[in-house]
Amino acid sequence: MVDASDGEQDPAARKAAWVPDHDDHQAAGDPLQFDPEFSGPKPVESRGCADCCAGMAMVLYFVGMFGVLGYALIKGNYQKLLYGLDLNGDNCGMNHGSSKDYNDKKLLYWPDPIGAPSAKYCVNTCPDNGDTTFSYDGSTHWVATWDTALVLNRCLPDTCSASWSDAQCSDAKDLVQGDYPNWLKRFFIDCATFDGAIGIGIGLACCIAANVILSRMIRHAGSRLPKLVYLAAVTLLGGFGIMLLANTGNVGNSSVNTEFQQEDSFSYMTLFFGLLVLVYLGVLLGLGWHLNANNDKVELVMREVSEPFGAIPRFIHTPLFPTAIVVAIGIFWVLGAVLLLGLDSTALTVVLGGYQLYGLLVCLEVLYGLTVATVSGCVASWYWGTPDESLKVCSEDEISNSYFRVGLSSFGTVARCAFIMAVFRPVLSFLRRLRRCGSSGEGTPGCRHAAHTCCRCCLAVAESTKMMDNRAHIQMAVHGTDWADSKTLSYQIFYRNRGKVEFASLIASKMLFVVSAMNTVIAGLVTFVWLAYDDDIYSPIGPTIIVMVFAEGEGEGEGDGEP
Fold first, then answer.
1. pTM
2. What is the rounded distance in angstroms from the CA atom of residue 331 to the CA atom of residue 325?
3. Could you give the percent of the chain with pLDDT greater than 70?
4. Mean pLDDT: which of 27-31, 280-284, 398-402 is highest?
5. If DSSP codes are grouped into helix, strand and coil, which group holds residue 318?
6. Residues in Cβ contact with 33 at an 8 Å cutoff, skipping those fewer than 6 apart
7. Which strand (E) or helix (H) includes residue 228?
């Protein structure tokens, strides 16, 4: 598929020079029988339903998720998440009857935090020094001798009264901050606001746009594209990390503030997340060094990938479908989470929230599996297609045909894989890397020897994960096999020929990591910038993390080498 350039070494010879020195005759299961009649993916009429029980369980689980969302829509109230309770136990910002209509009084204020700490009233604006506040019946009034700042719809003392001691001033602030919602509710609280929803939507929209642009660019990919994508990812990630660290004190205000607020846990969260982004940047820099050292391999992989992108009709639009679905899933899930946090029962919130969280992970795994299987089916049809005037072509509806083949016979298989991977993907990824590091031999770097020595007790467990491979989706797409047969066939084929394909698999996985990192940081950076300087936002870190999680979930999953 790759033409040799004038004056360059033949690509086949160059590829052979890159092949690691492996023993290709190691036993990897029974040899597969050669099928001279094989001409591409198995047709729909020759396929049967695989892993039907898992498919039915998946449908029932999805129905349950919609049921939970419906219950949250009926019983949940996002206003309970946003607004505090007054001295009578009534939520501000809500109508509790003709004499308790607080729709225009959304802010909670303590008129005498030292003398009467239990007296708190719903007001329409936070008073400043010299303003007068009346009780609900008008029989009592208070004159503020301090300024207040609006934080989480509470009027937090911003300055101290002249009559307060330093300890009393601290007690007044602690009183208001003690009325804040717990950290989980604060994490989602900005998602319940109009401005927060707009910020999340803009971040996810930018993720879709970046995905579509990259998909179009790869059709005419050259040697410069990977470098440009990498430089863009590094620049954006570095700028994002610096911006996070410059806003560690941007909690409850709308200005750049590096002053750390020890009394608010979200300052710690912003600081930790900023440092995590810089660590992520360090990983990306190391990855770039490796890709630059293997530039010839990168160019070969890019040429091989661009071939089907140009030959399969409308193939460049394929990433748009999973991205749009992830955005839709994210919107509904965030809506459900906000409403569940507004339930009166904490135990019910935890149970239903856990059900929805696992369902979210399963949805992302199903979407990933269907996408990989659909793309694999298209590429297989193109690869085994009959040349037309020396050019391999596919039918105009090949993408829909591939999706139909997968959905008809392999949905249960994808569902079974999703139920497993939704729980064990992080653990399995760690164990696969441990197994790789533990396979020490002559010339192996010292770090692998150390991993082999220190983690030998875990290698037995790690070895059991060797067939949990994303390449099983290729077998689903081509042969319509169930989960057990798909992972076995995948393991046999890859490990029998790993010396010939491992370099391409590793290079492709690293390039996908760079692309995923750029999409994720674009979504997070746009959301953070949009919300960081908004007066109505408590902390932009919650919506930013949510957007980045969905953007990362939309990207290609990592495995023991990519399909």
1. 0.80
2. 10
3. 75
4. 280-284
5. coil
6. none
7. helix 224-246
Question: Taking 80 as the threshold, does the pLDDT of residue 461 lie above it?
Answer: no
- Cβ atoms of 284 and 244 within 8 Å: the answer is no
* 410 vs 350 pLDDT, higher one: 350
Q: How far apart are CA 476 and CA 157, in angstroms?
A: 62
Q: Residue 248 and residue 269: Cα distance in Å, rounded?
A: 8
Rounded to whole angstroms, the Cα distance separating 321 from 307 reads 21
Going by the DSSP 8-state scheme, the letter that residue 387 receives in this structure is E
CA distance 433 to 430: 5
Look at residue 299 in the predicted model and tell me its pLDDT.
73
Spatial neighbors of 460 by CB under 8 A, at least 6 apart, are: none
Mean pLDDT in residue range 441-459: 56
pLDDT in tens, 170-181: 999 999 988 999
Q: What are the backbone angles phi and psi of residue 150, rounded to the nearest 5°? A: -85, 115
What 3-state class would DSSP assign to 555? coil
- The one-letter amino acid code at 328 reads A
Classify burial at 404, counting beta carbons within 10 Å of its beta carbon; exposed 0-12, middle 13-18, buried 19 or more: middle
Cα–Cα distance, 39 to 305 (Å, whole number): 21
CB neighbours of residue 156 within 10 Å: 21
5 alpha-carbon distance from chain centroid:
40
Burial of 559 (C-beta count, 10 Å sphere; 0-12/13-18/19+): buried
**Exposed/middle/buried for residue 421 (C-beta within 10 Å: 0-12, 13-18, 19+):** buried
Phi, psi at 392, each rounded to 5°: -70, 130
Whose CA is closest to 1, among 382, 292, 294, 394?
382
Residues in the chain: 563
> What is the C-alpha to C-alpha distance for residues 168 and 317, in angstroms, rounded to an integer?
62
| Of 5-9, 238-242, 371-375, 496-500, highest mean pLDDT | 238-242
- The span from the CA of 544 to the CA of 555, in Å, is 17
In this predicted structure, what is the pLDDT of residue 21? 45
- In order of 85, 363, 464, 501, the CA distances from 473 in angstroms are 52, 16, 19, 17
Task: Read off the tokens for 147.
Answer: 């300024």
Q: Report d(CA 216, CA 91) in Å as an integer.
A: 51
The whole-chain average pLDDT of the chain stands at: 79
Q: Is 51 left (phi over 0), alpha (psi -120 to 50) or beta?
A: left
CB 313 within 8 A of CB 398: yes
Provide CB contacts within 8 A for 223, sequence distance 6+: 295, 298, 299, 302
When pLDDT is cut at 50, 70 and 90, the band that residue 373 belongs to is: confident
Sign of the Cα torsion 414, 420, 423, 429 reads negative
User: Tokens 């991977």 map to which residue?
Assistant: 421
Q: Residue 193 class from Cβ within 10 Å (0-12 exposed, 13-18 middle, 19+ buried)?
A: buried
Residue-by-residue DSSP string for 469-519: -TTHHHHHHHH---HHHHHHHHHHHHHHSHHHHHHHHHHHHHHHHHHHHHH
Report yes or no: 207 and 554 within 8 Å, Cβ to Cβ. yes
